[in-house]
Design a protein that fits this description.
With about 500 residues, the protein is an alpha+beta fold. It has two domains: about 1-305 and about 455-505, FAD/NAD(P)-binding domain (3-Layer(bba) Sandwich); about 310-450, Succinate dehydrogenase/fumarate reductase flavoprotein, catalytic domain (Flavocytochrome C3, Chain A, domain 1). The chain has 15 helices and 18 strands. The chain has helices at about 5-10, 70-80, 110-115, 125-135, 145-165, 195-210, 265-270, 285-295, 305-310, 345-350, 365-370, 375-380, 395-400, 405-420, 490-505; strands at about 20, 55-65, 85-90, 105, 185, 215, 220-225, 230-240, 245-255, 300, 310-315, 330, 355-360, 385-390, 440-450, 455, 460-465, 470-475. The strands form four sheets. Strands 1, 2, 3, 6, 7, 8, 9, 17 and 18 form a nine-stranded mixed beta sheet that branches. A hairpin with a 5-residue loop joins strand 7 (about 220-225) and strand 8 (about 230-240). Helix 2 packs parallel to helix 15 and helix 5 packs across helix 15 (about 490-505). The protein is globular.
Length: about 500
């Protein structure tokens, strides 16, 4: 039975569900527990579900995953191969969330793809080299070292399974010449930076459906449903088009809902310095954070200082080009302001210099770079109003509306550093090369991008409460977890690791 929105509101709305998205406390009654006049739930064995409204489960599944980005799809992979019944719920009309627009600059080690390319490092060797730093700072959790090891290995397993079991396409790993310093650890989707949607997400989703997983679209989660013992046993959804209410029962429920960067109220509360910037990726409203808190989960790291995820240029793929090709980044005053081989930090550096925009200047070498060529071409086509090309620096400066003499002085100084073989101004290490005409430039505006605070999960990947106890039946992966840094790699790794746990249930 699906309740209409009107009928649903007659009996109190989502805030009365014990784990409703709008709830702050653990229950709806004044004492935070079950109301004395709560009606029994329809559905026999679940007659004692906490909450005022009756719960009538319209659908039952082994695993319910809320969100269909990298974390959500990764969480479904191992269970689907194990024959589990899976429902993936998405509030938008299509899968992918903010992952669809990600550059998909992914870190992994010891994948078969890398071994086949002659990169010798195995995942065991990589773990031995990083385990001390990876496990530091969480001494209060005796299980944490083993958990973070599992997450680290999960990244490698994800790539191998995505290729072999789900038909995802990854590019042949970059050489040291193509990607100085990072080649042994970076993997890109098949057509390079920015193509993860078509090369990774789409084939994984198609295979999941072939394996029996059900995708439910236009379905916004408005409450988690708990039994009297405190276990999460499903979720309530509102159809974003019809307004109808649907309850789905699940043995395991996974929050893979992303961050909260598009929720102005939450940004103002947790990261107020970024509140007056436009949001780049829409739809990251923090619903999963609210649902988890209402179910008893404890948030941490919400004011994370991992700033390059919080602020980004409005052409996010462009911020990675400096890893792959020579670029020169300048402010509206025509002056260089940052080392370009780690240009993820450009947005925060521009803000610190007193600006809300900057220019990325490149040459033909960017169009010829295998790993970013598709991204360069596509972003020029989709941002024609921010694109300038010219044969001379004077013409380029005019098109960019920056002082010509300053820009020419910037390039003269940059060429001096190139000739000397050392960037003593900003310590750029890779791609310290001069640019040749014709010059190309794209203007980037500072935007809010992603957030990295959320829930800590326990040894079984279940959400922890304020007493560091796992909430039965409630799992989390991706940017809704703390320490995620909104990283594609972490989203995939935590998602796949959750999936391994669920496959074994």
């Amino acid at each position: 039975m699906a309740l209409s929105r009107r009928d649903f509101l007659k009996v109190g709305g989502s805030a009365c569900i014990v784990a409703g998205a709008g709830a702050v406390l653990a229950g709806c009654s004044p004492n935070g527990g079950q109301s004395n006049d709560a009606k029994p739930a329809e559905g026999g064995a679940d007659a004692s579900v906490v909450g005022y409204e009756p719960v009538s489960f319209d659908k039952e599944t082994d695993i319910l995953i809320i969100g269909t980005g990298y974390a959500g799809l990764a969480a479904a992979m191992a269970p689907a191969l194990a024959g589990k019944k899976i429902v993936l719920a998405e509030k938008q009309q299509m899968m992918g969330g903010d992952s669809a627009g990600s550059c998909c600059f992914m870190f992994a080690n010891g994948t078969q793809l890398q071994l086949d390319a002659g990169i010798p490092t195995t995942i065991d060797e990589y773990w031995e080299s990083v385990k001390d730093t990876q496990t530091a700072g969480f001494d209060q959790y005796d299980w944490y070292p083993e958990w973070v090891k599992g997450k680290t290995y999960a990244n490698t397993k994800f790539v191998d399974s995505a290729i072999n079991d789900f038909g995802a396409k990854f590019q042949k790993p970059a050489t040291d010449e193509e990607l100085p310093r990072l080649a042994s650890s970076v993997i890109l989707p098949g057509d390079g930076i920015g193509t993860g949607g078509i090369n990774i997400l789409t084939p994984i989703a198609a295979k999941l459906e072939e394996l029996g997983a059900e995708f439910v679209y236009n379905s916004r989660a408005i409450a988690l449903i708990k039994d009297p013992e405190g276990a999460v046993i499903g979720a309530r959804f509102e159809d974003t088009e019809k307004g109808t209410i649907t309850d789905i029962k699940a043995a395991a429920t996974v929050l893979a809902t992303g961050g909260f960067a598009d929720n102005g109220e939450m940004v103002q509360r947790y990261i107020p310095d970024w509140a007056n910037y436009a949001q780049l990726v829409h739809g990251c409203m923090g619903e999963g954070h609210k649902l988890g808190v209402a179910a008893g989960g404890a948030l941490s790291g919400m004011d994370s200082s991992f700033t390059y995820c919080n602020l980004m240029g409005d052409i996010p793929n462009c911020t990675t080009w400096g890893y792959w090709t020579p670029i020169v980044l300048v402010l509206p005053n025509g002056k260089r302001f940052i080392k370009e081989d780690q240009s993820h930090d450009a947005a925060i550096a521009a803000v610190e210099a007193g600006y809300r925009e900057w220019w990325s200047i490149f040459d033909q070498k960017a169009f010829d770079a295998r790993c970013i060529a598709a991204s360069v071409e596509s972003n020029i086509k989709t941002h024609e109003d921010a694109y300038v090309t010219a044969n001379t620096l004077d013409e380029l400066a005019a098109g960019m509306d920056v002082p010509a003499e300053t820009l020419k002085a910037t390039f003269a100084r940059y060429d001096e550093l190139v000739a000397a073989g050392e960037d003593t101004d900003f310590e750029k290490k890779a791609w310290l090369n001069s640019l040749e005409p014709p010059y190309h430039a794209l203007r980037l505006n500072v935007c809010r991008y992603k957030t990295s605070g959320g829930f800590m999960v326990g040894p079984n990947n279940q959400v922890l409460d304020k007493e560091d106890k796992e909430i039965p039946g409630l799992y989390a992966a991706g940017a809704v977890t703390t320490l995620s840094y909104a990283s594609v790699s972490t989203c995939m790794a935590t998602g796949y690791y959750v999936g391994e746990t669920l496959a074994a249930l």
